[in-house]
Amino acid sequence: MATPPRKRPLVLVVEDDPTLGDVMLTALKDDGLDAKLAHDGDEAMRDVDDLSPSVMVLDLMMPKRDGFSVLRELRADGRISHLPVIVVTAIFGMSERLYATELGAADYVTKPFELDDLITRVRALLSPTAA
Prior knowledge:
Blueprint: E1 10-14, H1 18-30, E2 34-38, H2 41-51, E3 55-59, H3 67-76, E4 85-89, H4 94-102, E5 107-110, H5 115-125
Parallel strand pairs: 1-2, 1-3, 3-4, 4-5
């Protein structure tokens, strides 16, 4: 069943740290975006199917299914072509950054980060009609 069109773009934040997840949600909502928090990769994949988000902000290190697994699944079935993903992680390694990019991540942000910078990156990935 298709989801009805929404007035504002939906940002799906996938973060297992509830405090950081809430801070990101609040910042995105304060900037005029709709945002939903998924606490792990399994929940994220359900939300992608159920909610059709405009952008995903994805942590790499999570329980159940990590961010790389989520990226692989999105890429395998073609969903990543229409769902821009910003990886947000504490992993600074160049090999991880390259792997995330190879899997289709549109951007890569290392923790700690400035919320304003994250919002700018999210806005940059939204289609001109949605932003």
